[in-house]
User: Fold Tryptophan--tRNA ligase from Donghicola mangrovi.
Amino acid sequence: MTAATHTPRVLSGIKPSGGLTLGNYLGAIKRFVDMQGQDYETIYCVADLHAITVWQDPAELKNATREVAAGFLASGIDPTKSILFNQASVPQHAELGWIFNCVARVGWMNRMTQFKDKAGKNSEAVSLGLYAYPALMAADILIYHATHVPVGEDQKQHVELTRDIATKFNNDFKAENFFPLCEPIIEGPATRVMNLRDGSKKMSKSGESDMERINMTDDADTIAKKFKKAKTDPEPLPESLDGLKERPEARNLVNIYAALSEQSSEAVIGEFGGEGWGKFKPALAELAVEKLAPISAEMKRLMDDPAEIDRLLLNGSEAAQAIAEPILQQTYDIVGLLRPRR
Ligand code: AMP
Ligand code: TRP
Assistant:
């Protein structure tokens, strides 16, 4: 079996660890929707097993899982075109994840910059799962023999680790090309959306202040207020992209505008170069409201019918398992694991 014989297959995921942000939308979900229309088989998961690498309140996790699913659906993921499910309902991920824990090397995990950032000075007290999670992410991808992985910039190193795990597995077990070498797809002007109050930090679900991020469920007034108060510098927008090099906050807002309006950052500078923030920020707020308001309204509508979301996720998990189970069984055979059968 060679990787070249696989259909191009896309896999990506998002953790239900707090509300979805504009970073998730532009860096991930919007691009998942774009890939759905192309010549790929598309598989997307709500990565609940990843979320619990840090504490999640059990009373909220199911709701948060449904809300991420609603975010996918409301943004345009179509369950008749893509497979959409939550990771915990497809046990093959965790099963392959264990095998990959035995393939990946501790030295590789020690180089993961996201772990170092998240663990900080507290690295003795974080969960073992947080340390091992890139091996589970590799399993998420490789349990489908996926070839393309659309992600934001912060996940690039984990997709590269996935390639290392695939290569080592294939070599160690002399299973040439069994696991394909997947490509990270990190494209467009908003692969790293930054915090609105500090342009050196990524916009994330869990920052201290709600003012630093746009949530996909924010109402129009909140979105306008957050962009109005977003940190900038006193200069007007430059006439060329080069002029944004040393201006992280300004660059971030231009990139957000570009991604929302589906044009390049150059084109945005072409339109707004020389203008002050008094003109650009209201235009950005208006554009963001125009794009996000229908999505957040649809998320609310979907969340009123959790049984319908569960039904869609169940269909997705059955379709996912139909692909994953044969690959897991082949993997067990390659590794030499006995499964006595009746
Ligand atoms: P997470 O919320 O950590 O599960 O991330 C899910 C997806 O959203 C991943 O592909 C991330 O790279 C992407 N993502 C999260 N935050 C950002 C951001 N600030 N800018 C761009 N992409 C992001
Ligand atoms: N680990 C990713 C994040 O924290 C989410 C994720 C889980 C993922 N499984 C994945 C992304 C598989 C791509 C492929 O952002």
About this structure: Residues 306-335 form the longest helix (30 residues). The two ends are 29 Å apart (CA to CA). The chain has two domains: 3-185+305-335, 210-301.
